[in-house]
Amino acid sequence: MRRLALAAVLLLGACSAGPAPSEVVPRSAAAPQPANASTVSAAPSSSAGAPSCDATASLRPGPLPQAGQMPAGSTMAKIAQRGRLIAGVDQNSFLMGFRNSFTGEIEGFDVDVARQIAKAVFGDEKKVQFKVVTSAERIPMLQSGAVDVVVRTMTITCDRLEDVDFSQVYYQAGQRVLVRRNSGITGVEGLADKRVCVASGSTSLGNVVNRAKTTVSVPNWTDCLVMLQQGQTDAISTDDTILAGLAAQDPYTEVVGARFTDESYGVGVPKGQEDLVRFVNGVLERMRTDGTWSGIYGRWLTPLGPAPAPPVARYRD
């Protein structure tokens, strides 16, 4: 399916009478910016007095209960009684969480992780309701109880642990840079006099705002891709997982430079639901040992290279 999507992009490019997106196109009027785009002049302030912590050390799982037999009174039993897991995911990050234009279904690496959690509760991975959330909506949706979990390229940080809980690390990413081919930009060090696009509510924003001349914040990463294609920005900077998906959608772009951050993804869980954290960690342990994690990687993330070993779990108890 991904090959079909890419082929469609290439076919459209071949049939178009217009110039490639990497060419400079004279414009009689400025192209409109995405809704809610804004210029950011300083890194977002962190939570006041947030302590340092061992962010990626989670809670040790116990034995996984049998699907369909959740412990009485547990968070998982409440989810089972409802009849579905509600998972916050993305629909704009190709490879990680995106809406398939042919089927209308949401797919991707993160989506399959959420399905595995549903399977562990119900014995059926289809008993999950996906709720689309932006980067900025992830924590509020968990705090309000609108979702049971968030599986959306969410980096575990000490600041975020003040507001929500996290599983163990299920994927290790790193921030890089996406540019138009032949731009002359070779990595993050080339952004000092450039205009860079990032998504609001992401750790990527704080990592790049002081490295670029101008930083533009938008709700979704696909908004950044449109701005890059229209010449409104010189680069996009975020996790390599997200950039690989954007590059697959536009063959006139490329990911450049080495990783300059470590981004440890965890499943977000409402604060205080320790039983659900331990349960999710049990699911991730099983995925790591029975080959499920590697199979999901092979299905979605081969553009990033051969499957690495799954992240090693770290626990604080």
From TrEMBL:
Keyword Ribosomal protein (UniProt): no
UniProt keyword terms in alphabetical order: Signal, Transport
Low complexity: bias regions: 36-52
Signal peptide location: 1-19
Domain Ionotropic glutamate receptor C-terminal: 84-303
Top-level taxon: Bacteria
GO-annotated cellular components: extracellular region; membrane; outer membrane-bounded periplasmic space
Region annotation (Disordered) ranges: 36-73
PANTHER family from the UniProt entry: ABC TRANSPORTER GLUTAMINE-BINDING PROTEIN GLNH, AMINO ACID ABC TRANSPORTER PERMEASE
Homology family: Belongs to the bacterial solute-binding protein 3 family.
Protein name in UniProt: Polar amino acid transport system substrate-binding protein
Organism: Lentzea flaviverrucosa
